[in-house]
């Protein structure tokens, strides 16, 4: 992988085993100064474990961790220059908000007036001034998470670590706080490492997303690149809701042109940008439901007719389930154009926007 | 107009449904079968347990002539507190004739340090086991748990020898050490389970904030664990106060705890059996655990429930 110059956080050959179980395997990642990195993956992929390693809450089995150019592999969490925000907020229940914010500073023996100054600043940024004298039990979920962010803020650190901070909130609050975290990042310009399993959070917040699976980073790239050009079938299927359509079939070449064939369906691949010179064989064709045009006539490199199986109205738009080459295929249409069940409809798309994967290895072709 | 004559359905009932049937909460009868069985059982059981206490209180307030009449259930004709005074200050055990008071103060001197010492050590043990997964923690825990299942009687004689060798045999401090050690397995288990049930992220947050082993224990964990401390105090106070075996084995007559002294008063073979004094002495001895339960019953239940949730 490519190495950055003067990275804010640098993970080198990091491995972690619990007994015989390997959780992280020779993992490498560089985070640039002021960058917002999101670690995204299904539960059990090792993303929280990686964050805990960076925080120093877990001892690593092998490898090194640098923060701000300093090797912190053996340092205590407090000496690493990090602030951390937890999913369950982890506020000290017996302390007021103010005491919660100041706890770390009091432990570190920072003078009183300096503590007061930092709390005032954090409270102002997060708009929690009226709550300072309350106990956490008297706060709502959103307020608690704001206090938890404040606790990281007052530490005046270089790197913020977020461990699924919004997962305990309801959908509306989650959307609000997501925007606030984004604003906070643009205001503070700190390095932030953010763990989530929510792809919307990842897409909206990240400068770069690291998609993880089984303790290995599958793809590390800008959100749009990951969305449009996933490196393998796992990344393609994990991002996007509704999920990408996958058709099983074969890659074939006749008359010098490449085709993707599944039963009676033949998709010409003239506009598709191959990663490397293709070879004929079993392959998976993937295209996102929103990249398929619906009843829009000819003019597309590929058109077909299909029968509607199920219609799923989702408010702003509707998901239409079809049968294409005897496989499930979904199309996203605006709600005004919702067809009825058993209608025969025509669809069209440009393979330029599709992704082709090797059937066996799942890597992008 | 003709259609006005058609009867309208009742405002609240739908057409075709019986509008006069049951509505609202189902009525409950005080003397339903269920209530009679429930309260009947409770009353019978309560009587069964309270009757001996009643007999004891009544007997302790009677003079000996009245007791000899044999009506143990009848209330005293002449109430006298003399047996209580005698039991407390002048009942004889062997050569000593200063009553239970000496045993009471011995028991206090045994119970208070044992409770404080055992809980202080066990809470730190439990905290370390639950939160700081040090090397060998699991082995240590297994050994402790096994310790909880070994019958005390097996270890009595070896401990006698150990105490004799270190010169603490027969002293109060020797007994305090014995009580603290034997309280350790169950208390450590209790505290470990309680601390394990606390969110782990709290502990992690405190570590990121820079607090160390003792900092987290005193500033984060302790203020959150009042219920479990109350449970531990009750378990230890009642357990140590009621202990007879260790008291009789590891102390000398002048340092006997209250329970041993009670036994010696009640079981003395010479002279007349003074039932009223014996009853008063027994109630006096049982008073401390009883008071502890009454005062802290609610907290006790809450703590037991909190500690029991997670293994």
Strand order of the largest sheet of chain A: 6-7-8-3-9-10
The CATH homologous superfamily name of the largest domain in chain A equals: P-loop containing nucleotide triphosphate hydrolases
- What is the quaternary state of this protein? heterodimer
Unreliable residue runs of chain A: none
Tell me the strand percentage band of chain B.
Answer: under 5%
Top CATH class of the largest domain in chain A: Alpha Beta
Average pLDDT confidence of chain B is: 85
Query: Largest chain-chain contact?
Result: A-B, 25 and 16 residues
Highest CATH level, the class of the largest domain in chain B: Mainly Alpha
Total number of distinct structural domains of chain B:
2
What is the H/E string of chain A? EEEHEEEHHHEHEHEEHHEEEEEEEEEE
Rg of chain B (C-alpha, Å): 30 Å
By CATH, the topology of the largest domain in chain B is MetI-like fold
Number of strands of chain B: 0
Helix/strand order of chain B: HHHHHHHHHHHHH
CATH architecture of the largest domain in chain B: Orthogonal Bundle
Distance between the termini of chain A: 20 Å
Structure description:
Chain B: Keywords: Membrane, Transmembrane, Transmembrane helix, Transport. Chain B: It comes from Mesorhizobium wenxiniae. Chain B: It is a multi-pass membrane protein. The complex is a heterodimer of chains A (365) and B (311). In chain A, helix 2 packs parallel to helix 4. Chain A has helices at residues 47-55, 97-107, 112-126, 141-153, 171-188, 199-205, 223-228, 233-238, and strands at residues 9-18, 21-31, 36-40, 62-67, 70-71, 82-85, 159-163, 191-196, 208-213, 216-221, 245-254, 257-262, 265-268, 281-287, 293-294, 302-313, 317-324, 327-334, 344-349, 355-358. In chain A, the strands form 4 sheets. Chain A has a 6-stranded mixed β-sheet with strand order 6-7-8-3-9-10, with helices on both faces. A 5-stranded antiparallel β-sheet of chain A has the order 13-12-11-14-20. A 5-stranded antiparallel β-sheet of chain A has the order 15-19-16-17-18, with no helix packed on it. Chain A contains 8 helices and 20 strands. Chain A folds into 2 domains: 9-238, P-loop containing nucleotide triphosphate hydrolases (Rossmann fold, 3-Layer(aba) Sandwich); 245-358, Nucleic acid-binding proteins (OB fold (Dihydrolipoamide Acetyltransferase, E2P)). Chain A has 365 residues and is an alpha+beta fold. The mean pLDDT of chain A is 90. By secondary structure, chain B is mainly α. Chain B folds into 2 domains: 33-80, no CATH class; 101-308, MetI-like (MetI-like fold, Orthogonal Bundle). Chain B has helices at residues 33-60, 64-68, 82-89, 101-131, 137-149, 152-165, 172-197, 200-208, 213-221, 226-242, 245-250, 258-266, 275-308. Chain A binds chain B through residues 52, 55, 57, 76-78, 82-84, 86-94, 103-104, 107-108, 151, 155, 163, and chain B through 199, 201-202, 204-211, 215, 219-220, 223-224.
């Amino acid at each position: 992988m490519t190495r950055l110059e003067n990275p804010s956080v640098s993970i080198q050959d990091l491995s972690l085993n619990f007994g015989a179980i390997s959780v992280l395997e020779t993992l490498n990642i560089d985070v640039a100064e002021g960058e917002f990195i999101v670690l995204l993956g299904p539960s059990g992929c090792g993303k929280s474990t990686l964050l805990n390693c960076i925080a120093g809450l877990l001892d690593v089995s092998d490898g090194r961790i640098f923060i701000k150019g300093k090797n912190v592999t053996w340092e205590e969490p407090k000496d690493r220059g990090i602030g951390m925000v937890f999913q369950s907020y982890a506020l000290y229940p017996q302390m007021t908000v103010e005491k919660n914010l100041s706890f770390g500073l009091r432990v570190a023996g920072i003078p009183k007036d300096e503590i007061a100054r930092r709390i005032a600043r954090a409270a102002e940024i997060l708009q929690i001034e009226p709550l300072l004298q309350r106990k956490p039990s008297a706060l709502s979920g959103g307020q608690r998470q704001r206090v938890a962010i404040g606790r990281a803020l007052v530490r005046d650190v270089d790197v913020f670590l977020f461990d699924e901070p919004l997962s305990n909130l309801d959908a509306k609050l989650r959307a609000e706080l997501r925007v606030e975290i984004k604003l906070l990042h643009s205001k503070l310009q700190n390095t932030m490492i953010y763990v989530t399993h929510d792809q919307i959070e990842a897409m909206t917040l990240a400068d770069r997303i690291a998609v993880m699976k089984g303790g290995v980073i599958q793809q590390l790239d800008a959100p749009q690149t990951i969305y449009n050009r996933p490196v393998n079938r796992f990344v393609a299927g994990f991002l996007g809701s509704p999920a990408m359509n996958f058709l099983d079939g074969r890659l074939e070449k006749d008359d010098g042109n490449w085709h993707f064939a599944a039963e009676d369906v033949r998709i010409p691949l003239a506009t598709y940008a191959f990663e490397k010179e293709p070879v004929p064989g079993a392959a998976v064709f993937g295209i996102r439901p929103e990249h398929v045009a619906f009843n829009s006539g000819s003019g597309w490199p590929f058109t077909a007719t299909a029968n509607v199986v199920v219609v799923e109205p989702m408010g702003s738009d509707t998901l239409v389930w079809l049968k294409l080459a005897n496989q499930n295929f979904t199309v996203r249409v605006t709600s005004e154009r919702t067809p009825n069940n058993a209608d025969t409809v025509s669809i069209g798309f440009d393979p330029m926007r599709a992704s082709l994967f090797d059937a066996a290895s799942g890597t992008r072709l | 107009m003709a259609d006005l004559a058609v009867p309208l359905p009742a405002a609240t009932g739908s057409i075709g449904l019986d509008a006069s049937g049951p509505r609202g909460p189902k009525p409950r009868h005080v003397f339903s079968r269920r209530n009679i069985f429930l309260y009947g059982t409770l009353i019978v059981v309560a009587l069964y347990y309270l009757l001996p206490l009643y007999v004891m209180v009544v007997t302790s307030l009677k003079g000996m002539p009245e007791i000899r009449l044999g009506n143990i259930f009848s209330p005293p004709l002449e109430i006298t507190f003399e047996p209580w005074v005698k039991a407390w200050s002048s009942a004889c055990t062997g050569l000593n004739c200063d009553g239970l008071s000496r045993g009471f103060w011995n028991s206090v001197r045994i119970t208070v340090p044992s409770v404080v010492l055992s809980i202080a050590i066990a809470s730190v043990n439990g905290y370390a086991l639950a939160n700081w997964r040090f090397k060998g923690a699991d082995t240590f825990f297994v050994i402790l748990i096994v310790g909880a299942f070994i019958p005390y009687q097996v270890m009595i004689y070896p401990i006698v020898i150990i105490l004799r060798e270190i010169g603490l045999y027969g002293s109060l401090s020797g007994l305090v050490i014995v009580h603290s050690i034997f309280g350790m397995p169950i208390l450590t288990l209790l505290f470990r389970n309680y601390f394990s049930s606390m969110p782990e992220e709290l502990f992690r947050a405190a570590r990121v904030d820079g607090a160390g082993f003792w900092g987290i224990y005193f500033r984060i964990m302790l203020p959150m664990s009042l219920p479990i401390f109350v449970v531990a105090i009750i378990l230890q106070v009642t357990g140590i106060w009621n202990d007879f075996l260790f008291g009789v084995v590891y102390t000398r007559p002048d340092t006997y705890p209250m329970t041993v002294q009670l036994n010696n008063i009640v079981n003395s073979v010479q002279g007349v059996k003074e039932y009223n004094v014996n009853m008063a002495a027994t109630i006096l001895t049982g008073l401390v655990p009883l008071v502890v339960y009454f005062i802290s019953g609610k907290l006790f239940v809450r703590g037991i429930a909190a500690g029991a949730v997670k293994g």
